[in-house]
Specification:
single chain, alpha+beta, disordered C terminus
């Protein structure tokens, strides 16, 4: 059967006009609207999981193939398809089946039809052979005749073809009637449905205002009551509401508790009794009675008048307590207090509201203000007897705020001067203001914060200043990022992107002593943005003075000179980590510049007859005249945002769309002193190799040199690395686009590209690799190195290339092969833990035990049996478990007890099973489910869909027919323990119990065509261990049940913290090096043994033979595990000073003469001898060998004659410093100093690269794209490193950099001057065309 779909369209089976005539107007409009919303875009996933949800998946997938063909799915084809399925004739439906089985839509063969039926789990009909007796293929008329004669079973089509099939309707005409959640609560409490909705709304507001977490816990309740009521009272008040003892008051518990307070004396007495019956034993103990009397006395101010006969007795049952309450004066006053709390704090509106508000305000006036607490200003005119909305507008200064601007702070407006407290306004607590606003309404909410002053705690009503916050519309940002795809055509990009239009969006009022950091954190919470993903710009004043507000210091708004009505731009980072303002301005800043990076013709550049071209010549100070003019006369936005960097080299790089990987690598290379000096002295212009077929015509080197000059010319705070990005994307497609990339891969590409562009070898000789045989390692290594440098000689080789020894040993015969390969980056693996952390969530049979989270530290060679043993040690009373993988509350698969732990990449749910013996008792797994109503659908039964939620639970059963009442009792017992229902509740009012398949959505008894989501449990229902049930919750209680599941926390075992500590245990860099040099076995087929004459398993070992002057260490944090890329977040401790000597290969010494004859340098013998003596000491070498070297110069025939060769080469420097791994005296060991680090934060899907580099001024700097700021060595050493850059100590730049006899004098000056100033005269390109 072909995979391209049939060549016949659905409209050929049923024409569009006929299909349209079979639909009513409402059905047609419904299908058209559903198509635009459900199938937008018309992907396979949307088609299978949404449009044809409920159909067997193989059928839906094959139908999708037929509909899409080579063009996107169209509405007419889909409409015809739906009409064929729902309202088509038998012949039309069979024709559709024929098309699904056919490769071309005109004929089918036996193989195609059999495969189709097999894919649908349909048994192949015995009569199928009659179809192909005459020919190997059959046409549709033959197929139709065969079907009508034999009527074979065809699975899904049997249901579609049935006369009484439920696949008939498109629109669901009837609306289901059900009790709402608020109606359910209103029946349980003495409130109306409207009151319940008002209380819940007020409850949400209190939780948002007073809760630090998302729960209404004891602290939140105390914050509501403080300072009028004590913490002890709040604690006991909380006990009475928290019915399920989960440390949280949900809306149901709150409404029931409030109802008990207001219903009557007896109900109120029960509520008070529950406040003090802390141990819930049904009796008030002596301690509980004493606590009650103490609180009651302090409350009612009648503690001295409490008499023995008026006080409750100890060990009092609730009946005696109710009787005492009915005659106690103290309890009457206590009741009044609690009712006022119900009215004012929780917003339940009584009949006489004004008097209650007055009483509460008088109580507040007697209490002291609390510093830091929010208070509200209310117009005093309202308290003079006018019961209407609170008019606060007359208290405020007249301010014009655009209608579209939203006030995001509670501080709203500035009060007029001269207003008096108690005369013009009153100060109210938050709870009183919220209730006043809910009951009567208010035109403005004016919030102020109490603060400490020398005179005491006061509410400063005049302090807030208004800040106007602007945003850039998101459409501009999206267009700008899309325009970067067309960046090579700058004119087209500029036309597509307008300069960012700043729109006043928010207004906020803040205090002058607020720090900028606190403002950013507030905006982050309010706008639901990550604080690191937004930054603020001060737009006040002339455009040229607009600047980025730095939040690195705890500067206040007053220190930043932000006054009333200051304009602030909120810039939100794009998803690709770029900044919108930078992206748009970069495009417009470059709109006229003609790019000479490619060999474009004038026609390609759209230069027509009489085109005007400006030749712009660079100024002596390295600036461009046009940019200077723009700054002065046009206030160009890009330049106003990138002022001069304060320190040479402390220049940021704009993120051009997920280019942090490139920026971080370039910043580290930029701070590689020898390489940067090489480019700043323009020595690369003498060594460009534009004829190298492996190079990039020198373009990469030129672009990199231009970038280095810009980074070190001290003219911008941040620049846009556009040209080098274009160049890299041009020659390396993997770095094109805006996806996330690997910084190490980019760095390796740049080092290789720069090397080839600057390779001093013009014609690479052919080299032959000889087998190592029995030769000494030093001889083989030198041969390999000579082969390498005969083809590769550049500043990159001199600085970055080292040599590794690779040893392969045959497992079968012991034959050994040795190679010595060059490297530019040393990629080290992070040592693997022999143990893994297995996360297990244990779900107990008794819901009161909840869910416990365990993290088990086990050997990765173990199986799930070891997990079971560990759990038995943790919970000895549990004998049996069911291990499953849950996904979206559904059992995705059952995990075998023999499953290896190395395959476990997900959290395991371990369900406790019933039974104490050697074998578990029968059980079933029960899902929580409810129905949701959807408005857009294609088939009637899709109008109401089942949705699973929460964690399933286990109940014990008996195999075979089971008493339905026993099952209900078991489920009911679990639900009572879990959701704290009254034991006498009627389950039929809350839920029904159904039997389903493992997916929790399909009935276990009915066939697909019945469209049944589960049959009700009956006496005849047979259950076994592999059965699944669902509790289908009624819509009235779903909200409550789901809220409970969200609020109940998972209890963490101590093993969780232990595992985190073990996982976070750092590993030393030396351990990574040891892991790198550790011998490992490679599989058969990866290595050919010359002695055995076939592929064999082998042992492979890598060793470090030579070290370069600049050592780059890459830590392999990313790996492919079980088909998924994973990041190892293990901390690596790395030193700032590094001695690699212990990790070098120990080898015999070789004569200096042998090494010097391989050098491609132009030094006489005497110079070499003196350099060696001054570097490592003559006693390390064979003096006779030195004297045996002739005075004649050793010249490599492949080097170019016009230019002399460098003073030195990498072979001399490396050999003289490392002696190919030989240990030197302690004071001569090759020490390396850290000078740069690349770090990766986040995870693979959403990570970010930053870098740290040591400036020539000995100060560490933090580079985060365009942001550059000082940092400390301590912070650098605490970062999660991805790449480490080390420089050999005491390097002499003059020995590393080449010098040329014909070099201009302007280049001939001390390198130390360059590194101290990084300011050189420029003789590169000094003009550009616009």
């Amino acid at each position: 059967m072909g995979n391209t779909g049939s060549c016949i369209r659905i409209s050929d089976i049923l024409s569009y006009e006929v299909a349209r005539s079979r639909l009513t107007s409402k059905e047609y409009e419904h299908l058209e609207l559903s198509f635009s919303q459900i199938l937008s875009p018309p992907t396979k996933q949307n088609f299978v999981n949404r449009a044809f949800l409920g159909f067997p998946q193989p059928f839906s997938e094959r139908l999708y193939q037929v509909l899409v063909k080579e063009t996107p799915m169209s509405f007419p084809d889909l409409m015809c398809c739906v009409v064929v399925i729902l309202k088509g004739t038998d012949q039309e439906k069979l024709h559709l089946l024929f098309c699904l089985a056919s490769s071309d839509g005109h004929k089918i063969n036996e193989e195609d039809l059999t495969k189709l039926l097999t894919d649908w789990d349909i048994k192949t009909p015995d009569d199928i052979s009659f179809l192909f007796t005459v020919s190997e293929t059959c046409t549709f008329p033959h197929f139709l005749k065969w079907y009508r004669k034999f009527r074979p079973p065809l699975g899904v089509y049997d249901w579609i073809l049935k006369e009484d099939s439920k696949l008939k309707g498109i629109l669901c005409l009837g609306k289901p009637t059900f009790m709402t959640y608020h109606q359910f609560l209103a029946e349980q409490a003495s409130f109306t449905e409207t009151q319940v909705m008002a209380i819940e709304k007020h409850y949400v507001r209190l939780r948002k205002q007073f809760s630090q977490s998302k729960r209404f816990d004891l602290d939140a309740l105390y914050n509501c009551l403080h300072p009028l009521y004590s913490y002890e009272f709040a604690k006991h008040f909380f006990y009475a509401f928290d019915l399920n003892n989960d440390g949280n008051i949900d809306s149901r518990e709150l409404i029931i508790g409030l109802s008990m307070i207001l219903e009557g004396a007896e109900s109120f007495s029960k509520f008070v009794y529950s406040m003090f019956d802390v141990d819930e034993d049904g009796l008030l103990s002596k301690e509980e009675v004493e606590t009650f009397i103490r609180l009651l006395g302090s409350f009612c101010m009648v503690s001295d008048s409490l008499k023995t006969n008026d006080a409750p007795q100890e060990n009092m049952p609730i009946s005696d307590f109710i009787a005492w309450c009915s005659t106690s004066v103290s309890m009457y006053k206590f009741h009044t207090h609690l009712k006022n709390i119900v009215y004012i704090v929780f917003g339940v509106k009584p009949d006489l509201t004004f008097n209650i508000i007055r009483q509460w305000m008088e109580m507040e006036c007697e209490m002291k203000l609390v510093a830091g607490k929010a208070y509200y200003i209310a117009n005093n005119d309202w308290f003079k007897g006018t019961e209407g909305p609170v008019q606060n507008e007359p208290l405020l200064e007249n301010e014009i705020i655009p209608k579209n601007a939203v006030v995001v702070t509670m501080e709203n407006g500035v009060l007029r001067k001269g207003l008096l407290h108690g005369v013009d306004y009153q100060i109210l607590s938050s709870v009183l203001w919220f209730t006043l606003e809910d009951w009567y309404g208010a035109d403005k909410a004016i919030c102020r914060r109490a603060k400490f002053l020398p005179a005491g705690v006061v509410v400063d009503v005049m302090v807030p200043v208004r800040l106007n916050f602007y945003r850039t519309p998101s459409t501009n940002t999206r267009i700008a990022v899309e325009a970067l795809n067309k960046i090579h055509n700058m004119e087209e990009a500029v036309n597509a992107v307008s300069l960012p239009k700043h729109v006043l969006t928010y207004v906020g009022y803040f205090y002058l002593d607020d720090t900028l950091k606190s403002v950013i954190q507030f905006l982050s919470r309010t706008l639901k943005l990550g604080w690191e993903d937004l930054r603020l710009w001060n737009l006040s004043g002339p455009m040229a003075h607009q600047k980025l507000l730095d939040d690195s210091d705890d500067k206040t708004l007053e220190m930043l000179n932000l006054k009333h009505s200051s304009n602030i731009l909120i810039e939100v980072r794009n998803n690709d980590m770029s900044w919108p303002e930078e992206v748009v301005n970069i495009i417009h800043h470059n709109q006229k510049l003609l790019d000479d990076s490619d060999d474009k013709t004038l026609e390609m550049l759209n230069l027509k007859h009489s085109s005007n071209i400006l030749i712009e010549v660079r100024n002596n100070d390295m600036s461009w005249p046009e940019e200077v003019v723009n700054i002065i006369h046009h206030n160009q936005k890009l330049d106003r945002k990138t002022p001069t960097a304060k320190v040479n080299g402390a220049t940021g790089l704009n993120n051009l769309g997920n280019t942090c990987f490139m920026n971080s690598s370039i910043q580290c290379l930029s701070n590689t002193k020898p390489l940067t000096v090489y480019f700043l002295k323009e020595l690369h212009l003498h060594e460009l190799n534009q004829d190298n077929p492996d190079a990039f015509k020198g373009l990469l080197a030129l672009r990199y040199a231009d970038l280095i000059k810009s980074l070190w010319d001290n003219s911008h705070r941040a620049i846009a690395p556009l040209k080098i990005r274009w160049t890299i994307a041009k020659f390396a497609n993997q770095f094109n686009g805006f996806g996330q990339q690997d910084a190490q891969e980019l760095l390796a590409f740049m080092l290789d590209g720069l090397h080839e562009d600057l390779n001093r070898v013009t014609v690479k000789p052919y080299t032959q690799v000889k087998d190592s045989g029995d030769r000494h390692d030093s001889e083989v290594a030198e041969e390999f190195w000579n082969n390498h440098v005969s083809r590769n000689r550049s500043i990159i080789v001199d600085l970055f290339h080292g040599q590794l020894k690779s040893t392969l040993r045959c497992v079968q015969c012991g034959f050994t092969s040795v190679r010595f390969d060059p490297f530019s980056l040393l990629s080290l693996p992070l040592p693997e833990n022999e143990n893994v952390v297995v996360e297990v969530l244990v779900v107990r049979l008794d819901p009161a035990n909840g869910i416990t989270h365990y993290c088990l530290w086990l050997n990765n060679e173990y199986t799930m049996k070891n997990v079971y043993k560990k759990l038995r040690e943790k919970i000895p009373e549990v004998m049996h478990y069911l291990f499953v993988e849950l996904e979206n509350s559904v059992v995705k698969r059952i995990v075998s007890i023999d499953e290896p732990l190395k395959n476990i990449t997900f959290s395991i749910h371990a369900f406790e099973l019933p039974g104490n013996g050697s074998k578990a008792e029968p059980y079933v797994l029960v899902y929580n489910r409810h129905y949701v109503t959807v408005e857009k659908y294609f088939f009637e039964w899709q109008h109401r869909l089942v949705q699973l939620f929460g964690v399933p639970f286990i109940i014990p059963v008996k195999d075979g027919p089971t008493d339905i009442n026993i099952i209900k009792q078991n489920i009911k017992a679990c639900l009572i323990g879990k959701y704290c229902f009254d034991p006498d509740f009627a389950e039929d009012l809350l839920f029904t119990i159904n039997k389903v398949k493992q997916n929790g959505r399909e009935c276990a008894n009915c066939s697909w065509g019945e469209l049944c989501s589960g049959c009700r449990l009956s006496e005849s229902t047979s259950l076994s261990t592999f059965s699944y049930l669902t509790v289908d919750w009624k819509s009235a209680v779903v909200h409550l049940i789901r809220q409970y599941d969200d609020d109940v926390p998972v209890v963490e075992d101590d093993s969780v913290q232990e595992a985190k500590c073990r996982q976070s245990q750092p590993v030393d860099l030396s351990a990574c090096l040891q892991s790198f040099t550790k011998e490992e076995e490679i599989g058969e087929g990866e290595w050919y043994c010359e002695k055995c004459g076939t592929h064999r398993n082998a042992y492979k070992k890598l060793d470090i033979w030579r070290l370069p002057p600049i050592l780059i260490i890459h830590l392999k944090r990313f790996s492919l595990q079980n088909g998924k890329w994973q990041k190892c977040k293990r901390k690596v401790i790395f030193p700032d000073s590094f001695d690699p000597t212990p990790f070098l290969v120990q080898s015999n010494r070789i004569s200096l003469a042998q090494r010097l004859r391989t050098e491609s340098v132009t030094y006489p013998r005497t110079v070499l001898v003196e350099r060696v003596k001054s570097t490592v000491g003559c006693d390390e070498y064979d003096t006779l060998s030195i004297n045996s070297v002739d005075d004649e110069e050793v010249v490599n025939s492949n080097n170019r004659n016009p230019l002399p060769h460098p003073k030195n080469s990498v072979s001399y420097i490396m050999d003289s410093m490392t002696m190919m791994g030989q240990k030197k005296k302690n004071d001569d060991r090759p020490l390396y100093d850290l000078y740069a680090v690349t770090a990766h934060t986040g995870h693979i899907g959403h990570g970010h690269y930053v870098s740290f580099s040591l400036n020539p001024n000995k100060q560490w700097y933090y580079y985060n794209d365009s942001l550059v700021k000082k940092t400390t060595k301590k912070r650098v050493l605490s970062e999660p490193p991805y790449m480490l850059f080390y420089e050999r100590r005491n390097l002499k730049l003059d020995d590393l950099l080449p010098s040329f006899q014909n070099a201009d004098e302007s280049f001939d000056f001390d390198a130390s001057v360059i590194m101290s100033r990084m300011n050189v005269s420029n003789r590169g390109k000094s003009c550009r065309v616009q």
